[in-house]
Amino acid sequence: MVQTTDIPVMALKEQITENHNEFLESLHHRFLDEERKAALQRFESVGFPTKKDEEYKYTSLKEITEKEYNFFPKESHNITKEQLDQLHLGEENFDWITFVNGKLHKELSKVSIENVEFLSFNYALNDEKHKDVFDKYFNTIAGDKSAFTNLNQAYCKYGFFLKVPKNVVIEKPIHVFYISQNQEENTFYNTRNLLIVEEGAKVEIIESHHNFDSTYVLTNSVTEIFTYPNAKADWHKLQNDNDTSYLIDNTFAKQEKDSLTTVNTFSFGGKLVRNNLDFIQNGSNINSFMNGITIIGKDQLVDHHTAVHHNQPNCESYQNYKGIFDGKSHGVFNGKVFVDKIAQKTNAYQQNNNVLLSEGATIDTKPQLEIFADDVKCSHGCTVGQLNEDALFYLRARGISKKEAQALLLYAFANDAMQNIDIEPLKEKISKLLAEKLEVDIEF
């Protein structure tokens, strides 16, 4: 008996070309049309990456690219307040922005920030007075680096634009929700975020994606962060979606002198998650922080690809990624640090530690350094292993069950990757998610 596999009539690459003219006609603005067409041509010339591409050597996208998707999500929804409340972190003093099926819903948002420019991305594109801002910033660091950034440029519509003026400190963290619901077909979103933090300003963003349907959602997200002198920008990614969700996240951060930028990535859910993170240091005395915690099981895949470009002297970067893998899950970490010949006195730290809880779980890890300066302090390392038997015995000798002892050790293992979170409700939420994933009761 011959087995057959149902292959969609039109795979994603063909759908992209088919839908582009209709997509352009649906937009009200025109000043990006030529750029969109050029981006689509660049994408078509190379197509989606395969495992033959070095950057996707360990990650197959075949499951994603052979499905059919709707490029025009239904706007109607029936999200309830109770459903939204479950997504919140108990952040009564936060601001939040809620996108449902790509559209910003003010009635589901709470925005009290003042003295800043905040617009939905689509509205900003339609606003002629922001054309100069987009000419200056849009796609200048994301560029045409990959098939997914080109694809996003060709189709981006959803997301937000935020500009924090000089010396403005936004005291409240801003939680941005991207929700998909009431979609009868697989749905494709290209979200785009642009954050500009001017000199002496400060802001903290929390980003999370949620699919409420049993149909598949593919989100191709691009975020560009510009941090100016003496400014601070923190971006926390809370990835805890369901098993019918795919996320390709591309985040680019460009920093000027004396600035601090942090991107924390907490990956607990989603069928396939790929995080591409690129830091560009464009001045002296810059600090860049990247932390990640991944806890997955079943047949989930989470792939972290990071790059830090040390282009100026007297700068620091810190990467600390922890992974816990169960079932037949697969983790990937590829971290790169580039130190230019003029970037003397660079201090770069990179560490990736992983625990495999089952024989079917796998991790491919590859930390890399490319150093062209001679007066630097750079270190990198990775570990892959199982729990320490002596530590387990120590806990069990004190009356703790094997399951609880394992969970406590794993909690302690992952915990140090979230020590620089200064938002207490977020830190508590991550701790609770850790405890839930590890199936242990921990007092907070």
UniProtKB/TrEMBL annotation:
Domain SUF system FeS cluster assembly SufBD core: residue ranges: 184-413
Domain of life per record: Bacteria
SUF system FeS cluster assembly SufBD N-terminal domain location: 18-176
Coiled-coil boundaries: none
GO biological process entries: iron-sulfur cluster assembly
Family: Belongs to the iron-sulfur cluster assembly SufBD family.
Protein name: Iron-regulated ABC transporter permease protein SufD
Organism: Chryseobacterium geocarposphaerae
Native organism taxonomy: Bacteria, Pseudomonadati, Bacteroidota, Flavobacteriia, Flavobacteriales
